[in-house]
């Protein structure tokens, strides 16, 4: 499988670690100390892990699926790949190009601040509740 092929390549690479489940309290510290975060999902909506990595100023390499591509503009807010070979190539590019690395970090962080900040999310939900109350879809207490 694709995941097995990636895992085999990762196990042969120096300085690359594949982590299984991590307690939530440790997750952001690990992400902040990582060179990059990888999302290898074959099917997913918008990934909170990708947005968290961008918010923490960590570049993202993600499988090119609709949910990931909705957030990542290739070589702008992150790197997208479709095959194990593309993953390896994108990872090498990111390691060898410090200018690209910094730009992806900067633009990814800007994207999250502009489109997914806590304040923006709060306002969206607040407006939704207000609209629902106005249309009598929710009974007022």
Which key features would you list for this structure?
single chain, 141 residues, mainly alpha, Rossmann fold, three-stranded parallel β-sheet, 7 helices, elongated, Glyco_trans_1, glycosyltransferase
Description:
- With 141 residues, this protein is mainly alpha-helical.
- It has one domain (2-138): Rossmann fold.
- It is 57% helix and 7% strand.
- It contains seven helices and three strands.
- The protein has helices at 2-12, 24-32, 48-55, 66-69, 84-96, 98-115, 118-134, and strands spanning 37-39, 60-63, 79-81.
- It has a three-stranded parallel β-sheet, with helices on both faces.
- α3 (48-55) packs across α6.
Number of helices: 7
Which stretches of 5+ consecutive residues score pLDDT under 50? Answer: none
Helix-strand sequence: HHEHEHEHHH
Q: Which shape, going by the Cα principal axes?
A: elongated
The appropriate CATH architecture is 3-Layer(aba) Sandwich
CATH level 3 topology: Rossmann fold
Domain module count: 1
Q: CATH homologous superfamily, by name?
A: Glycogen Phosphorylase B
Main pleated-sheet profile:
3 strands, parallel
What's the total count of β strands?
A: 3
Radius of gyration: 18 Å
Mean pLDDT: 86
């Amino acid at each position: 499988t694709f995941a097995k092929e990636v895992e085999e390549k990762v196990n042969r690479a120096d300085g690359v670690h594949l982590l299984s489940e991590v307690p939530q309290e440790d997750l952001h510290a690990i992400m902040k100390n990582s060179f990059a975060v990888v999302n290898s999902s074959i099917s997913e909506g918008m990934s909170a892990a990708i947005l968290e990595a961008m918010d923490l100023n960590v570049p993202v390499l993600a499988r090119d699926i609709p949910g990931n591509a909705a957030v990542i503009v290739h070589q702008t807010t992150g790197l997208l790949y479709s095959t194990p070979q593309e993953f390896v190539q994108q990872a090498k590019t990111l390691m060898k190009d410090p200018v690209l690395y910094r730009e992806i970090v900067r633009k990814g962080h800007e994207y999250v601040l502009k489109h997914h900040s806590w304040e923006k999310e709060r306002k969206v939900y607040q407006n939704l509740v207000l609209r629902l109350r106005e249309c009598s879809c929710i009974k007022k207490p």
